[in-house]
Automatic annotation (TrEMBL):
This is glucose-6-phosphate 1-epimerase. SUPFAM superfamilies: Galactose mutarotase-like (SSF74650). Belongs to the glucose-6-phosphate 1-epimerase family. GO terms for cellular component: cytoplasm. Substrate binds at R60, Q83, R88. InterPro entries: Aldose_1/G6P_1-epimerase, G6P_1-epimerase, Gal_mutarotase_sf_dom, GH-type_carb-bd.
């Protein structure tokens, strides 16, 4: 069977041995094990050892969805919401199987207005808002670099949101990095000693590169000690996105 589900989680598998586990709480991807020919499937995502998986708070790691904004609430209409909005802290509903063939398997989960959402976000969902897939890739942060970002304008959140133009061919994450790159090419490569990842973003104009290192990571309660050495976030983000768009 290409998928299994219960009231907490959906698991997708392929004939080649790859798999994905999705928590219905937040529609957060907890695990992505990629298989190659003649190689066993291995985990490609990072999840903190201190992550809470019981649906009481958003998961630290994996691929959570930030919506209708990224980061702390900055607009007056968002002040009733917590960090990254409500999508990652609401239970999503199973909808349907979208694809099930030799190419792979895909399913659709939906998030509809609930009384709790309407209490903090009464706006109609057809309006355009910022959304982001906050992907934690398992990586050796000491040697990890991300490219191609050279020539892109970016906002450096580690320097009081200063705006600059990237001059580096490859951007390292071995020190505290939190940068929002505007109008990227939609294809990014993270590489490190012994591995790498290619990210292709369709319909997502911007990209965030993040690793807190000890400077900021030690202040995150559900991130275990030294976790910042083991991941990089390469986060596809549209500037404006209708909720009716298909992710």
């Amino acid at each position: 069977m290409p998928y299994t589900k219960d009231d907490k989680k959906v698991t997708l598998t392929t004939a080649a041995g790859s798999s994905v586990e999705i928590l219905l709480y937040g529609a957060t991807v907890l695990s992505w094990k990629a298989s190659r020919t003649a190689e066993p499937a291995r985990e490609r995502l990072f999840v903190s050892k201190k992550a809470v998986l019981d649906g009481s708070k958003p998961v630290r790691g994996g691929i959570p969805i930030a919506f209708p904004f990224f980061g702390p609430p900055s607009k007056p209409e968002h002040q009733k919401m917590g960090q990254h909005g409500f999508a990652r802290s609401t239970v999503w509903k199973w909808d349907s199987v979208v694809m099930d063939n030799d190419t792979g398997v895909a399913v659709r989960l939906v998030l509809e207005p609930t009384p709790e959402i309407k209490a903090v976000f009464p706006n109609p969902f057809h309006l355009a808002y910022v959304a982001l897939l906050h992907t934690y890739f398992e990586a050796d942060a000491a040697t990890c670099t991300v490219s191609p970002l050279k020539g892109l304008t970016y906002i450096d959140k580690t320097k009081n949101y200063a705006e600059a133009v990237e001059t580096r061919d490859e951007v390292p994450v071995n020190k505290f990095t939190d940068a929002v790159y505007k109008n990227g090419g939609g294809k990014y490569v993270g590489k490190w000693t012994g591995g790498g990842i290619e990210v292709k973003a369709v319909g997502f104009k911007d990209v965030v590169v993040w690793n807190p290192q000890a400077e900021a990571g030690s202040k995150i309660g559900d991130l275990h000690e030294g976790a910042w050495d083991n991941f990089v976030c390469i986060e596809a983000s549209p500037t404006l996105l209708s909720l009716f768009a298909v992710y």
